[in-house]
């Protein structure tokens, strides 16, 4: 994600996108869907949130 190490994990409850801010700092963007039939929307929503948060962080070197 914009040069940062990132990981996306989907599970029965939703989706998590994690990415590195610095050596000892991470961001987790999580989406939990209240209705299981909406679970396919969880990862796109989590990715969108992660992209918006990443834009607010200091640039990577």
Account of the protein in words:
There is one protein chain. Helices cover 21% and strands 38% of the residues. The chain is α+β, with helices and mostly antiparallel strands. It has one domain. It has a 3-stranded antiparallel sheet. A hairpin with a 2-residue loop joins strand 1 (6-11) and strand 2 (14-22). The longest helix has 13 residues, at 42-54. The protein is elongated and about 40 Å long. The mean pLDDT is 93.
Sketch the major β-sheet: 3 strands, antiparallel
The helix content is: 10-25%
Overall pLDDT: 93
So what's the overall shape? elongated
Q: Note the gap between the termini.
A: 13 Å
Whole-angstrom Rg:
12 Å
Segments where pLDDT lies below 50 for 5+ residues? none
Q: Note the run of SSEs as H and E.
A: EEEH
Summarize the structure.
The protein has one helix at about 40-55; strands at about 5-10, 15-20, 25-30. The chain is of the alpha+beta class and about 60 residues long.
Task: Note the topology.
Elements (H helix, E strand, L loop, with lengths): L5 E6 L2 E9 L2 E8 L9 H13 L7
Antiparallel strand pairs: 1-2, 2-3
Notable traits:
61 residues, elongated
């Amino acid at each position: 994600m914009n040069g940062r190490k990132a990981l996306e994990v989907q599970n029965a409850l939703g989706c998590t996108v994690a990415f590195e801010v610095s050596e000892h700092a991470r961001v987790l963007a999580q989406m939990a869907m209240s209705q299981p039939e909406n679970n396919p929307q969880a990862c796109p929503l989590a990715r969108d949130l992660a992209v918006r948060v990443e834009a607010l962080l200091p640039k990577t070197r």
